[in-house]
Amino acid sequence: MENYYNIHNIVKIKIQTKKLDIVKDYEYYFRDFKVVEKINNVDIEIRDIDEFSLPKESFNISNAFFGFDHGVYSKNDSYAVRIENNKMVIFLRESNLCINSLIEYFLLRNDCTFIHGAGISYKNKGIIFPAPPNTGKTLLISKLRQKENVNFFGDDYVILKKDGTMYSYPMDFSVYDYHFDFFPELKGTIENKKIKRNIYERALVNMVKDLPIKKVLKRMARFIGYDFLQGGLYLKIPAQQLVAKEKIGVSTQIKYCIFLSRYNGKEFKVEKIKLENLVKETLGILQSEWYKTLPVYNLLSSFGIIDFSEYLNSIKNIISSGFSDMELFKILIPTDMENKERLQKIEKFLEQNVFNPE
Questions:
Q1: What is the CATH number of domain 112-172+246-355?
Q2: pTM to 2 decimals?
């Protein structure tokens, strides 16, 4: 099967595989960018590992990692990556690589980068919320999506251009059981029933999480049409099921950057943040999210195919330039603060300082 995706004409992707699982797993990231027409000049092509053959003239490290002209191969993880003529071809046995971190390679070539965070626009003014995981980005979007004059850009990732433009990246929402109070339209749906069984799946996954049989169980479940949850923790729900299509933005100039962070204090705090500190924290979060795929870049760098230090420096420069003309804030949220109280305080700050400033 062949599927094509065009991410704002910045990155174009082709998936050519016999494995439906690979398509399903990766469409979680860029479902909304799927196109019907064939794209001839793609930037990234994802193919099955069976189509890959290691060139005879290759170098190896401990007989586990191999480098060859324009590419690398991991024997243990069954993947290969080849970069040649401004194109990346990824060979996989299964969807075990974080595709966003590989898309990043081409974003950087267009003066763009991913930001791990949520994004909206209000009356055509962009607002970005960089944040670590489990900070409440999805909860915040669950409230802001209902507001008039608000458009949605992403609840987990958005794309930042060097000139301060934000592009939408509406990945599927990761909906946990506690989210159903904030997405009332999901109550009584099949998704609600699925999430309720997570206690049993979580117990099963915890039992086998470090064993090879986990992958076998996941494949078996899919074969019989069972939507096996990832870790028994959450469901992946397409963005357009929770946000009206007309409220999903395309691009906007960012005016406010509001960094969300949880801490062990007792008070909800809002403070100004220096650009250099914001850049460091935002870059650090992005890399921590991609830690499982970073070895791919290290491997490419070790065989001289890319310069990983230049890669990181490019991300840093784009974030620094993109954020330079924005109003910068940091919100410190007590770890033990209830979700509803947290949302009320953030909304109050936004109303007074962003939506209706004096």
A1: 3.90.228.20
A2: 0.88
